[in-house]
Batch of 3 targets.
Target 1
Amino acid sequence: MKTITSKFDQVLNASTTYGNVNHEPDSSKEQQRNTPEKSMPFSDQIGNYQRNKGIPTKSYDNSKIYIVGSGIAGLSAAYYFIRDGHVPASNITFIEQLSIDGGSLDGAGNAKDGYIIRGGREMDMTYENLWDMFQDIPALEMPPPYSVLDEYRLINDNDPNYSKARLIHQQGVIKDFSKFGLAKKDQLAIIKLLLKKKEALDDITIEDYFSESFLSSNFWTFWRTMFAFENWHSLLELKLYMHRFLHAIDGLNDLSALVFPKYNQYDTFVTPLGRFLKDKGVKIQLNTLVKDLDIQINTDGKIVKGIITTVNDQEVNIPVGKDDFVIVTTGSMTEDTFYGDNNKAPIIAIDNRTSGQSAGWKLWKNLAAKSDVFGKPEKFCSNIEKSSWESVTLTCRPSALVDKLKEYSVNDPYSGKTATGGIITITDSSWLMSFTCNRQPHFPDQPDDVLVLWVYALFMDKEGDYIKKRMPACTGNEILAELCYHVGIIDQLDQVVENTIVHTAFMPYITSMFMPRAKGDRPRVVPAGCKNLGLVGQFIETNNDVVFTMESSVRTARIAVYELLNLNKQVPDINPLQYDIRHLLKATKTLNDNKSFLGEGLLRNILKGTYFEHILPVGEAEESPESFIVEQVNKFKDWIKGIKG
């Protein structure tokens, strides 16, 4: 590879940076200052300057890459090995336990038997790594040279997302969702949480910190149902989310901050990315279970020597050479999914004695048994009652439910445009049930007269309000009855059942990544001492990013490739909008339900008529006790004018 940079040898040989790049800079610890020693961008400096291609310090033409798991993290790792590592695609092999790629990003079925999607994707414009990759992946439906990002922008730029029925209650009545309803003490608690050091929040839950008034506010209803947080989840993760999405807080109630794909998550992302990789020559070995890694651990570090697999009930060991690399997705949020349908419940009982025993968790547990650097998987997979929820996919022919849906949609659901604009939450549902109708068709082959709806609920331990059973014990038709009751059409249930195919999915670990944690519970992307092993996915420690997003999976993959190959390229930290004074001021006013915050009048008076006036949040300042201060400032301004005059 020296020929690539041969004309720059004089500079590179004298550089202290070349070959010594910090591949995962941390913006929460960096004081941004330009110095002669500062040659690379600031840790969260985003933009086209970061679009340089990585240059390997040596050739990897003979290196083999084994990627365990073909979810979005594994697929992304393959992409970055090819694009920035210059690894031949034919050298890359996926080892997948399932019979299909995609991991948790699933989407399958047909109109006759019913469609199923275990989850959906609420996307953000600041997913720098995701869009970095998908701006290069050929589009699903547009011709070359257009990309997945081009398709995504085309539809979202021209079909804005918002909700007109974010909350409903009293058998289908739209509830006022214009206010957060946060008491002053709860607003202050949020501010104090943002100011706290991450290191001070180990193993603390949300309900340990926040008061009952916060937990019963509209704000928390919006937040918990949009992001799937429970009261007993990690306060640290909530803090990271608040920093990550601070710029979107004024779109939290009406969901106007979100952008959605045209189709389901599998067809939108996995299909084009998988097609790109396969066309390049990447290989995929399905129906292969990886049980463990043979790792040599000594004073020189930790080196993977082999991959221990099971194929057709036979143990097969794959040797790993000294120049080869292994990428492993640890844990799984959708492992051990139980399925049901119209007439069958997915699961009757939850048994923690069997938790964390499936393949995805066992591999991580086997790694953790070798060294503390591989984390503590039991922190995340040992309490199903607190990490599970159930989702439901409805394949709907015209019915009373579809008619009711039209009342809640911003456009006709059959129009191809934004329908509900995101989830509609039933606030007086004992299950805390939410449902959504995304743009239709949700699948490319979906008939014109079919709609696909998605339903989920957070409270698995509660009896329903109409069906007096816990949700996992209910058949699909019983869940449909509970939904019809809450939207006020229970008298038309028979007609709805006749025209609706129901598929249910109970997922024991779906929010396991949110469980309270401490430093060291999650491994780093490249754990200390590892020479040829990278860990990726939702249970990996990064500096400031959150979990339960596609972006976090792509980030871990990108870091793994850059770190293992020691590329002269960084993975930028999360988008720095949390430090932008405009978003800080906007968030302060939004949390106060758009009432004036302390000092706003003074700030407006100072900035009025200046270049910086636009940084202030929309609206005017109300009269407040600070008016005396404003009066004194005006007198001071008049005095200054007098001197200048």
Target 2
Amino acid sequence: MPLPKMPTKPATMLLAKDYPQAEPGKSPVRPASAKTDADLEDLISGQAVPTPKATKARKAKAANEPAPVQAVAPAEARDADAPLARGPSRKPKQGPIAPAPAARLLEPDADQPHPAKHKPVEVNVKSSTSRKADRSGTTKVFVLDTNVLMHDPTSLFRFEEHDVYLPMMTLEELDNHKKGMSEVARNARQVSRTLDALIANIDDDAIEAGIPLAKLGNKDAKGRLFFQTKLDAAPLPEGLPSGKADNQILGVVRALEEQMGGRAIVLVSKDINMRIKARALGLPAEDYFNDHVLEDTDLLYSGIVQLPDDFWTKHGKDMESWQENKNGNSATYYRMTGPLIPTLLVNQFVFMEPKNGESPFYGQVKQITGKTAVFQTLRDYSHNKNNVWGITARNREQNFALNLLMNPECDFVSLLGQAGTGKTLLALAAGLAQVLETKQYNEIIVTRVTVPVGEDIGFLPGTEEEKMSPWMGAFDDNLEVLMKGDGDAGDWGRAATQDLIRSRIKIKSLNFMRGRTFVNKFLIIDEAQNLTPKQMKTLVTRAGPGTKILCLGNIAQIDTPYLTEGSSGLTYVVDRFKGWSHGGHVTLARGERSRLADHASEVL
């Protein structure tokens, strides 16, 4: 279901219209900014919703001109069970291309405290050669650059019915990068083992004719694998050094166009400069985007949905309600049936804030069976009597987050938000309360990716914990806030409290996580947006009995090279864990750090 946009201003509370408006009988839910189906198509294709004047102009133009036919994306591209969103072989949407950023600016909304700012949407544009082949229904030949194989070792099997061609220079570069313990070296060795298994028991003549990619059991790969068997590449324009690997691969693409005149030859590379050079030479080139979880991160699951004003009218006819006492807290449950229920997910938060002065409703979906759902009311952590280690929720989203963090039945929680929204503070407060007060967990384990923002400062002395301490400045800052404690305790009491807290918090490095099992631990993964999906899987699978894992991050601040908002491990787990009965996600919307930080996020 389409979900609300990431907050454009971390210092501004999300308005009610920025959340998805649930409409009975319609799935997915249309965002409030999309008034018509045409506007919804514009949002999905990456275009801004036009203003009312532009809408009238478009309707007037549509009355005089026939509407263009828009192709529907293939069903397999929308398959929820597929591990990846789509690859270069997907049929493109024949929708309008997003205009330049200047044309995307909307008129300021009177309801918004500040003019809306819209980030440019990444649109994966296919080459004209690839689009022609899609329209004619013919298969293509994808020439893979080395960085594609080292980025995704299984990319050989991601092109469906199309053929894959490997130049000899690609094999040479794989051989050059196979040594070492880095992720790139491991991927290069995995690709080499896969290629060895494919060419096993194959005659030389069969290699010339192509090797079926489905030989190893990958049924989705219906094409064939071709190797470069002749070292005669087409000449490139003068001035390009022939000894460079990229230029030799470009020569292979040009030679293939001459040899296979009737087929579409497309170069696939993660190297932007390589694609630019290819397009400048008139060669079709595309990015490899099969690793993207979502085409547009604005559609990322937020964990929150606003109920329509007529929700109780249409769903409260045969409503049942009762109270239960779980984990020492009393909660009210509602069972109701209606057309809106199938659009919701388990553990999703719902809210309704009437404008006529009635009390608001905040709830969480606990169970869905067909068109019947069970809602549970939330504990109000904004009240001081329900504070968590002295911390209370300052806004609606923080209250939702604390309900997940303090729920022992929720084993996996992901918090996403801009700087200053309180992700780390809420996680630490919940961890200390459940480790030291309720003794739900034994200790807190904190880890993060050690990716520097600027230049690396070199090797660090000391033990593992001492080496990791410079990376944990954010946790130290939050611990200072949490360890203020009671002012009447005196210096000795505060020192004893600090020693107790420090003894229950362990800082670990990601490099030594493989093979470990954490039992009854409160594991916090900070800066999770810098993790790849493979690294995220390695971390989450470390959880043993009674362990709770928290993933914190901001996908707008990715420091890892070759990782984007759509392919980040944080995006991956948010999308994969939605709807699980023991997992939850909340996108925090409002900055609560300080008025200076809020204003800086706004104007800088």
Target 3
Amino acid sequence: MTVKPERRRRLSRLTACAAALAAAVGVLSAMPAGAESGGHAQGRTVDVQLLSFNDFHGNIEPPPGSSGEVSRQKPDGTTEKVAAGGAEYLATSLRKARKGNPYSVTAAAGDLVGASPLISGLFHDEPSIEAFNKMDLDVAGVGNHEFDEGRAELKRLQDGGCHPKDGCSEEGKVFKGSDFPYLAANVTDEKTERPILKPYTVWKKKGVKVGFIGVTLEGTPDIVSADGVKGLKFHDEIETVNKYAKKLNKMGVKSIVALIHEGGSPAKPEYNYDCDSPGPGDGISGPITNIAKGISPKVDALVTGHTHQAYACTIPDPSGEPRMVTSASSFGKLYTDTTLTYDRKTKDIVRTSVKSANHVVSRKQAKAKDMTSLIKRWGKIADPIADKPIGYISADINGRGAEAPESPLGDVIGDAQLEFMKPEDKGGAQLALMNPGGIRSDLVYKASEDEGDGVVTYGEGFTVQPFTNMMTAIDLTGEQLITALQQQVSGANEESPKILQVSEGFSYTLDMTKSGKDRIITDSVKLDGKALDPAKTYRVAMNEFLSGGNDGFPVFKEGKDKLVGKADLDALEAYFGAHSSKSDPLDPPKADRIKVVK
């Protein structure tokens, strides 16, 4: 039978197509799922690498003392402390981790700035934002400390420009702002009811889409000065994330990560502790557990922060399915590496394939040269102020790194504030109280640079108290003081107590075997050896943050005859000047003013 020309051409095309298809199949069989060739997807799934960190707090230099250590559990069951953190090492760690991962996105869960050491804090954290730009941070959610200097300053960190009061930090240079979007889905303007920053963003690469929603804790107004959150409203984390997850789904974005500045506490402090033992999420507690259980299954993973803890747990979502929830400690000491397997057909994450682990930002690895250059450049500007000696110590005085509710550095700060505000013309204070969260570091005996062992520099003092909180003196009755002590362990602080640091002469017993207000043994509260009189009025020194009723101490707002003095760091500097010298350094206090019953 004769084959017509049209049929011969058709057969020829079919044969060529079959040969090409066979060749393609051969190539595909030799390539891993998700591999790319010529820019086209060659498999149904692809692994997206999510690198994340949180609570950096402007620590571009390696944090000192215990603030720069993480605890690790060794294979034999013992634990060890490992030095970690600093922008030079975090940049190196992130860059190493990205190698061989064509789909890699880096995210952060708030408090990247604020409460920062002097080298960043002195310049309103412009150095830290510049460092994150160089690290190729893709997206960040806001935390409570992003509001320390108010909404306008947060917007400046995002958009750039010189500081409205202090001007340009570097002569001839205008701050460019962040290359990454800051997300604030649950923070709205009281008048317009609109989010003050973008609520979400979508990361895209070669057809892969991952949505990010950023929220801070709803209780931010309780832990930030009133000026910092003026005109803003903070909304429920669960409701907000669910709202925008639904919106992203309608846009065709099925893979979603929530950046939540709220966290939990694992049962053990070691960063490699298995918090999924004996079952999913059994080894973690705190606010994030209920938040995770309430957030829609549409969200595939939660990157969290705020508590400065390390964990990678699978807490069940509302449908009962395990979902990854992570946090990478603080100060850039750890980073989290999470694998999200993306299904190109469903455009969703295969949740059963999600894996995550925290990794130490070791100081034994090479430093990132661009970070070293950045630190030297900003350090040169800051050094004349930072290197000024303000005092001398005979040994480490732990604050942030103290394990007991009362810290030696807390005692020093309490004594400094009392002495500063004791003169009649300065406030006439009889005792001083300090919020523990305001103590950001330790004072370390060993020299950090060339200032000499035991020297406390202005920069080190600034690292301990970086908020420039103004000192106040207020009248409180004995009854109100008892209430304040009870508020340390009840109400907003019942789940995570905030034990106020006290000045010399003030003492009481804290019974942790009891619950709520009963933990304060009222009959034990004494001032200068005498029982506190509920009806008597006492003059109390504290920073303006505390006297404003923040940190879960509303009773302080009832204080009368308020006098505002100088900054808290001025008080610390004056105290070291009066009580230490090179030949007679200050010894660490015994920290025995609060008797703790366990």
